[in-house]
Amino acid sequence: MPVPFEALIPMGLVGVMFFTTGTAYKGLKMIRNDGKPQRSNIDNFDVMMMNRDERLTGSQRGQSMEAIAPKEFATNSAWSTEKVG
């Protein structure tokens, strides 16, 4: 039993739309992660290192290879301050 050619056009459109949305979704994830693949299986240590990297470089995926942290790193601590006494 042959397939009517009228059915190929809508199926082609559906396929193109799946491809377009999937490609756009992957592109947005890559832009959000500075062009690197998305992380998986993140544990507490990874979250701590992502916070440190964000404080050092301004991006969760950015890393610095400087041996000495910039002066601003001393004052932008992840710990909130409270008055004691």
From TrEMBL:
InterPro entries the record matches: NADH_Ub_cplx-1_asu_su-1 (IPR017384)
Family under the similarity heading: Belongs to the complex I NDUFA1 subunit family.
Pfam families from the UniProt entry: MWFE
Region (Disordered) location: 57-85
UniProt-recorded name of the protein: NADH dehydrogenase [ubiquinone] 1 alpha subcomplex subunit 1
Keyword check for Electron transport: yes
Membrane topology: Single-pass membrane protein
Function: Accessory subunit of the mitochondrial membrane respiratory chain NADH dehydrogenase (Complex I), that is believed not to be involved in catalysis. Complex I functions in the transfer of electrons from NADH to the respiratory chain. The immediate electron acceptor for the enzyme is believed to be ubiquinone.
Cellular localisation: Mitochondrion inner membrane
Compositional bias annotation for Polar residues: 74-85
